[in-house]
Amino acid sequence: MDGAAVPARPSGLSAYVAVSQALGLTLLLSTGAWLGRYRGGLGWHSALQINVHPLCMVLGMVFLQGDALLVYRVFRNEPKRSTKALHALLHGLALLIALVVIAVFESHRAKGIPNMYSLHSWCGMAAFVLYLLQWLLGCGFFLLPGASFSLRGRYKPQHIFIGIALFALSITSCLLGITEMLLFNIRDSYSRFVPEGVLANTLGVLLVAFGLVVSYVLTRDEWKRPPLAEELALSMDFKTLTEGESPDGGSQ
Amino acid sequence: MDGAAVPARPSGLSAYVAVSQALGLTLLLSTGAWLGRYRGGLGWHSALQINVHPLCMVLGMVFLQGDALLVYRVFRNEPKRSTKALHALLHGLALLIALVVIAVFESHRAKGIPNMYSLHSWCGMAAFVLYLLQWLLGCGFFLLPGASFSLRGRYKPQHIFIGIALFALSITSCLLGITEMLLFNIRDSYSRFVPEGVLANTLGVLLVAFGLVVSYVLTRDEWKRPPLAEELALSMDFKTLTEGESPDGGSQ
């Protein structure tokens, strides 16, 4: 930091981030407990293949996606370029894990069940395809050279809005998946409050809670990442050169 | 307006609001078409009582709630007090219509089905109770006298965040309800892409689209309601008097 004073972390931010991580880990444990205790566990070359799908979606499309969104708040005093690379890396990892969506297609093929007929599949596939597109556009605009400062500045608010919207859509798709799985497997006993139903409902509530805490951290104005001193100086130079808007000068 | 020039409406806002209203009306028509064409229509003292629930939820908890959120953007040049009253009125109307949730309890009682066991009911009831609480707190803080300017200023960002989050949760609950209703009624034919399944899925996609357009309008910085000249003067007076923050001076 060249001896410069590190700006203090805003009060409350660490507590909210800690809660989000505790919720994220609880999500993974609850999903594991549900699949392990009531759905026979995991497997690829067996009828258990379908169970890989919910675990990978909660890990990739929820936990990792949420953490990728949080990096600008958590690593607020690191250079922007490193934070941006970590943001892209975590989203990329989330996408790779979410690719296990093919487990469902494989499992459906083995059982002769058609694909893409349910609202869950429509929402989930839309979330996945748009997430991939958003990642590619994000890399193209913000990581690779080529996009002008003013173009980046115009695209950035859309990138942020779509990012949070896709996170919400991913969580919604998970809730739809939980409901489908319960109604396919325990339709007759679900209304008797059997433990599997209560556990899976609780997983749904935890997913909503994780989404709320992450979105709150992301949208609270005072917690946005302020530009570091050197970024501010650099962006002023660019502004003078281009007479355009500086996307990196503002908080993200 | 005492001869003062009316500030121009930001470019694009009217188009987005028009799209939101077209989507909202299409939502209502699609729900009506689904219930009328495939679920036997509406009725209170019959087995059709359960059908009143989805229509009222789409009308109250989605369309009216969305429109109530938009009033600060649409009536941006009206006095704040009138806009605030309309905001509270539309939310109150949405709540009244959503009260028809009792249709489900009545229908379940008649058929001997337990209540509140599904993830849809957990999310839906949470959305309704928190929405009622948010409305009461909103009236208490912003409509009734009593809350200090600085207290209003501290509560306002929370009120806005929770408002958008509850809107998203309401839409998610509707999607869960659609999935439940389809799996209870057309479980065996759903995977054959029967028209009822495709129509209800399309309704789900329209609900997501309505949520996205409304949220985009609400969160776009340039479209926030700027304080009118007289509000700015008034808030400066209060600021001088109280040395505190002015919640009405900022944009909402």
Automatic annotation (TrEMBL), chains A, B:
Residue ranges occupied by any Cytochrome b561 domain in the UniProt entry: 19-219
Catalytic activity: monodehydro-L-ascorbate radical(out) + L-ascorbate(in) = monodehydro-L-ascorbate radical(in) + L-ascorbate(out)
Signal peptide positions (record): none
Key word Repeat present: no
Molecular function (Gene Ontology), one example: metal ion binding
Alphabetical list of PROSITE patterns matching this protein: CYTOCHROME_B561
Main location: membrane
Membrane topology: Multi-pass membrane protein
GO CC terms, sorted: chromaffin granule membrane; lysosomal membrane
Listed SMART domains: B561 (SM00665)
InterPro entries: CYB561/CYBRD1-like, Cyt_b561/ferric_Rdtase_TM
Keywords: Cytoplasmic vesicle, Electron transport, Heme, Iron, Membrane, Metal-binding, Translocase, Transmembrane, Transmembrane helix, Transport
Function description: Transmembrane reductase that uses ascorbate as an electron donor in the cytoplasm and transfers electrons across membranes to reduce monodehydro-L-ascorbate radical in the lumen of secretory vesicles. It is therefore involved the regeneration and homeostasis within secretory vesicles of ascorbate which in turn provides reducing equivalents needed to support the activity of intravesicular enzymes.
Protein name stated in the entry: Transmembrane ascorbate-dependent reductase CYB561
Native species: Melopsittacus undulatus
Annotated gene: LOC101876091
